[in-house]
Amino acid sequence: MKSNPNIIFLGTPDFAVASLQALVENEFRVVAVVTTPDKPAGRGLKLSESAIKHYAIKNNIPVLQPVKLKDSVFLEELKSFHADVQIVVAFRMLPEVVWAMPPLGTINLHGSLLPQYRGAAPINRVIMNGESKTGVTTFRLQQEIDTGNILLMEEISIGPDETAGELHDRMKEIGAALVVKTIRGLMDGTLREKPQEALDPSVLKTAPKIFPADCEIDWSHSISQIHNQIRGLSPFPGAFTSLKEKAVKIFRSKPEKNEHHKLPGLMETDGKTFLRFTVAGGYVYLEELQLEGKKRMKIVEFLRGFRA
Description:
- The chain contains nine helices and 15 strands.
- By secondary structure, the chain is an alpha/beta fold.
- It has two domains: 6-188, Rossmann fold (3-Layer(aba) Sandwich); 212-304, Formyl transferase, C-terminal domain (Methionyl-tRNA Fmet Formyltransferase, Chain A, domain 2), CATH 3.10.25.10.
- It is elongated, with a radius of gyration of 22 Å.
- The mean pLDDT is 95.
């Protein structure tokens, strides 16, 4: 392999920026980036660019923004950069004509220990399921999503109260370092790729996209299920419930085991320091929340203006 291969980077959100920045700062030759087209955003519907485009422009890296990944004009432009390898971090599914284009193929960074938690929302799902560990994996792209040969992995522990947002911020940096390590391993020939383990479907966990139904809290669920749902969806899209006939998003909670005989879902508060909901075997205390039409607040601040 070349000592410094031509790299095309494909990504969109802030999570991907850490990996692109790590490649640039380690003096790899990123010849172009591919990201999503600008989209209208905000009240004025002003066009908003992706985090990757913003970083690329600041660092004088050419930007491609195809609407369709099979468009012939885009494919010709992609070929013109003569990439040796492509790196994908948090981007959409690629057609074979794109991922098979460079001679060394396309490498993807995924936010889980594959084959576990294949899919669109591994960070959310791993916390929602109450896992104590996860990780990042680099692998070669192939046709079926998240199934290609593994290159490198790194395990990450998850704190009992850690939110998806907090894990996201740690994982993007750990993942960026793994991307750099992967490219270096390819350059010096030390990487040995291996097929993903074929797990029994009964133990294989997936990470499908988050839907609105995943976000509504069912207070009849267990105390740990609810706490994990809240932190697994924080800060976005946010777990929610109803409070005085208004939706309230909950960003941080504290579970307390305490045997009682109350019905689940009862709201209790002292009006000053706590607001909690009853669940089987205890209570879930709301510590940070946002009432519909209001700003995000700590519970003490919220209770100053709340009348039960």
